[in-house]
Design goal:
305 residues, alpha/beta, Arc Repressor Mutant, subunit A, D-Maltodextrin-Binding Protein, domain 2, ten-stranded mixed sheet, two-stranded antiparallel sheet, 10 helices
Length: 305
């Protein structure tokens, strides 16, 4: 009996369906279904009964739910005690991030940090990708994650680590006139409004200015995606928003144009190396590496890496 399966069981019981639990945990529905089946085989009993499109706990499931919660809490306590020996001081970490990854992704990250590293006093700040490196360099943030428009900011007081590359895709609503064209040229695009990303310096990013098209500048990628969905124009949307929030991204289509895809690096910024063959020198360094490991693991689970 695996504790991970117990976590899936408890989450399905709380959410009432495998689909809702999978969205909460950032896992595939098939992974949860197989885990629940494996747990039922291990316990030789049924834990759920299907009622329409939802699941209800069986009598045995109701009986063991609280004990499963206690086991998960005990596991967290054991992991914490092993990772944080007595005598180490409480540390404070300030994490920054942009909006390329979804709010639900960062909620999962915060939950894992608070669960596995409860001795950390954590704050998380949203800022533009162009602001975050400087905030880390100045010491206002300990760690930041952002897609880099110009990834050449490293120096004596700032480290940057490329985690992956983000694909930006030229999208339109499948009801937009551009989506009905098999192949698009520049003239097709110039006749419609481009929705661009407005950074903290009031600069429009991803704007194809040479087309001479009208633009609508918005300050977040989710607003851009939703404006495109509302047929206000076409624009570039980061792929994580499309794959992590499939329901909200339904009705969008990649346009068949020669510039329909662009790649940008997604970086972690810090004032000390995040991956080093040597052990961290301080409790704060150790905490930073643990937090970074959690972010990377959640990105892997979400299918970004």
């Amino acid at each position: 009996m695996r504790t991970e399966h117990l976590l899936y069981f408890v989450t399905v019981a709380e959410k009432g369906s495998i689909a809702a639990a999978a969205a909460e945990l950032g896992r595939n529905r098939s992974t949860l279904s197989m885990a629940i089946s494996a747990l039922e085989d291990d316990l030789n009993t049924r834990l759920f009964m299907r009622r329409g499109n939802s699941l209800a706990l069986s009598p045995v499931g109701e009986l063991i739910l609280d004990d499963c919660q206690r086991l998960l809490t005990l596991q967290e306590k054991i992991l914490y005690q092993c990772a944080n020996p007595p005598g180490e001081a409480l540390c404070e970490l300030s994490i920054g991030r942009d909006d390329v990854l979804t709010e639900s992704f960062w909620r999962r990250v915060i939950t894992r940090i608070r669960t596995s590293l409860p001795d950390i006093r954590l704050s998380m700040r949203f800022a533009g990708a162009d602001e975050l490196p400087e905030l880390v360099r100045q010491g206002q943030l300990d760690l930041a994650y952002a897609m880099a428009f110009n990834p050449d900011y490293s120096g004596d007081s700032l480290y940057q680590q490329i985690i992956t590359k983000i694909r930006m895709q030229m999208m339109a609503s499948d009801q937009h006139r551009l989506a009905r064209l098999t192949h698009l040229n520049n003239a097709d695009l110039s006749g419609s409004t481009q929705i661009t990303y407005l950074d903290s310096d009031q600069q429009e990013r991803f704007w194809l200015a040479n087309l001479g098209t009208a633009s609508l500048a918005l300050s977040s990628f989710e607003l851009i995606r939703d404006a495109i969905k509302d047929r206000l124009g076409w624009g570039y949307v980061p792929e994580p928003l499309l794959i992590m929030e499939e329901e909200d991204s339904a009705g969008l289509r990649v346009l068949n144009h020669g510039l329909n895809t662009a790649w940008y690096p997604y970086l972690a910024y810090s004032r000390a190396p995040l991956s080093s063959p040597n052990k961290p020198h301080s409790h704060t360094d150790k905490a930073l590496q643990q937090v970074h490991r959690i972010v990377i693991e959640e990105m892997q689970l979400a299918g970004i890496l």
